[in-house]
Amino acid sequence: MISLFKLMSSEIVMADVVSDYKNKVIVKNPVVLVPSQQGLMLIGYIPGVLKDSEIAIKRSAIVSIVEMDSIDKNLVNEYYERFGAGIVMAENIPSNVTPIKH
After folding, report:
1. Digit-coded pLDDT (tens) for 1-14
2. Contact, 30 vs 43, CB < 8 A?
3. Domains and CATH numbers, the chain
């Protein structure tokens, strides 16, 4: 599940959570959200790390976590366009379709 992490370093990291342990969170494809004139940019969290590599973030370094349901869908779509299969969240869900919660 895609989540946002506010770190003790003040960085805001968006990543796909693989595993959640008592003392660490394992993520893949982490990016840092950086403000720009065009809005927020997604910049590689650790330059040179290969796509889909798993990275551990210590729980003691995390201030807060925001789950996907509470993240702006434009950010989620940009993340999926970069790392996913190109699937993006729908703007409007037809009334006869029930969304699946993860």
Report:
1. 899 999 999 999 99
2. no
3. 2-83 (2.30.30.100)
